[in-house]
Automatic annotation (TrEMBL):
Organism: [Torrubiella] hemipterigena
Pfam families attached to this UniProt entry: Gln-synt_C (PF00120)
GO BP annotations listed: biogenic amine metabolic process; glutamine biosynthetic process
Family (UniProt): Belongs to the glutamine synthetase family.
An example molecular function term from Gene Ontology annotations: glutamine synthetase activity
Keyword ATP-binding: yes
Protein name: Glutamine synthetase
InterPro entries: Gln_synt_N_sf, Gln_synth/guanido_kin_cat_dom, Gln_synth_cat_dom
Length: 477
């Protein structure tokens, strides 16, 4: 289908004329795509009304273990009942590494009320957008992902290798630190360009693609798009990388911090607010000579309120930006990762980097939120950013702190912003507090469910005995 075309159910028979099966998938709270292949006949019969999909995908973790404390959406008491999954026809694309198999994303709804399930990441983001649209506004977004790549030395699967070896023994696809290399990708040229071309074919286009500083590390900047579409494309980008990597015996790793002593994998999110005509509402036409700080001289009043909302809400939404125990191994001092509530014009050490004239065109004015890692669920991260920022606009909040000093080290005395949570447990406690901004923006149902899933993650980590502990204490205590 041509870009921007609205697909209808009546067009499906012709569109799928030469197909016999269709793949469908929805996004769970961990950002994983959960789905199935169904016959074309079945798909045509449920394309408009939807079909039953087991709610257990919101009742278990990323390894299919039910949560220790069962949550409201899916539990033994309700029999892990079916939810209503409705295909998003406009998400249609074909999977190039699966012989162009037709693919559609789905969203999940309560079968009784027909309302979006609170835990459905696609539904959460679209609910926030619907509120903004009543005010004649929308949002654009972009995403940047870094990821490590590993390959077993015997040509077998990395998963099999790890059954008999420690994780740190798994070899990287390439060695050494060589960011922006023009020659290093040639060592795996077919793989490198297959990722790029498959993303274009699968409609999750890469805008920029290069090696990052780290062994076997790549970075992709995805093409800027409408925010809900961008969230979908970010999820599908990860699927593309994993699908293509399988052909080459490579395992891509989107963990926030795969290797001790090396930089982590970031998942920076860019966002701008626009009107119905696409005009950037964060930009100020002319420089504000009376601005409190030069950093916001070209930022509109809407932009300043949005920034204030982001800064005020940041400590309370951390589990949506840093969702795993491992996320907080990346968010430490001295590794180019932000650790405080901080902001600044073109400041890469800050949590929120502002891009405005004179460093970019007015139409490209945006915020880059640098807290998220590559392990983030893009739908939840963008929901968190949009929800808190828009709260600032609605409440006309004032920026609560000055910009980060030029040259200030992250977490240094010159960075006086509030320290962000140092662990998932601390972050989840703030997120679930009865007075948290997260509850105000997203509602109790979502906070209780998502917070419960993060509590489960913390419990499993607390019970784990790590290799570090055994190596350190086996002989000495």
């Amino acid at each position: 289908m041509p870009e921007g075309t609205t697909l209808t159910a009546a067009q499906l028979p012709q569109l799928l004329e030469n197909d016999t099966r269709v793949k469908l998938a929805g996004v769970d709270v961990d950002g994983m795509l959960r789905g199935k292949v169904i016959s074309k006949k079945k798909f045509l019969s449920i394309a408009e009304e939807g079909f039953g999909f087991c709610s257990v995908i919101f009742g278990w973790d990323m390894h299919d273990k039910t949560y220790a404390r069962e949550l409201k959406i899916s539990n033994a008491e309700n029999g892990y009942r079916d939810l209503l999954a409705i295909p998003d026809l406009n998400s249609f694309r074909r999977i190039p590494w699966e012989d162009n198999l037709p693919f559609f994303l789905v969203s999940f709804f309560d079968p009784d009320t027909k309302e979006p399930v609170c835990a459905c990441p696609r539904g959460l983001l679209r609910t926030l957008l619907d509120r903004m649209r009543t005010k004649g506004c929308g949002a654009m977004a972009g995403a940047e992902y870094e990821f490590f790549t590993f390959k077993a030395p015997d040509g077998g699967s990395p998963a099999a290798f790890l059954q008999h070896n420690l994780p740190q023994k798994l070899p990287s696809l390439t060695e050494g630190m060589f960011g922006y290399s023009l020659t290093r990708p040639l060592q795996n040229k077919d793989y490198y360009y297959d990722i790029f071309d498959s993303c274009e074919a699968f409609k999750c286009n890469i805008e920029g693609w290069h090696t990052e500083s780290g062994p076997g590390v790549f970075e992709a900047a995805l093409a800027f798009d409408e925010i809900a579409e961008m969230a979908d494309r970010a999820s599908l980008f990860k699927l593309t990388v994993k699908g293509v990597s399988t052909k080459y015996g490579i395992t891509p790793c989107f963990m926030a911090k795969p290797r001790q002593g090396l930089p982590g994998n970031s998942g920076h999110m860019h966002i701008s607010i626009v009107d119905t005509a696409g005009k950037n509402l964060l930009a100020r036409e002319t420089k504000d000579e009376d601005a409190e700080w030069d950093d916001i001289a070209y930022l509109s009043d809407v932009g300043r309120h949005f920034l204030a909302g982001l800064l005020e809400g940041l400590p309370d939404i951390m589990p949506m930006l840093a969702p795993t125990v491992n996320s907080y191994k990346r968010l430490v001092e001295n590794f180019w990762a932000p650790v405080t509530v901080s902001w600044g014009l073109e400041h890469r050490a800050a949590s929120i980097r502002i891009l405005t004239p004179p460093t970019c065109k007015a139409g490209a004015t945006r915020f880059e939120v640098r807290v998220p890692g590559a392990d983030t669920n893009a739908h939840l991260a963008l929901s968190a950013i949009l929800g808190c920022g828009w709260r600032g606009v609605e409440k006309k909040l004032e920026i609560p702190c000055p910009p980060l000093d030029r040259g200030a080290e992250i977490g240094s005395g010159r960075d006086k912003g509030e320290r962000l949570a140092k662990s998932l447990k601390e972050a989840t406690a703030k997120f679930m507090h009865k007075d948290s901004i997260a509850r105000e923006v997203f509602g109790d149902d979502f906070v209780d469910h998502y917070g419960g899933t993060r509590e489960n993650e913390c419990r499993l980590y607390d019970e784990a005995v790590t290799d570090w502990e055994v190596q350190r204490y086996i002989e000495t205590v």
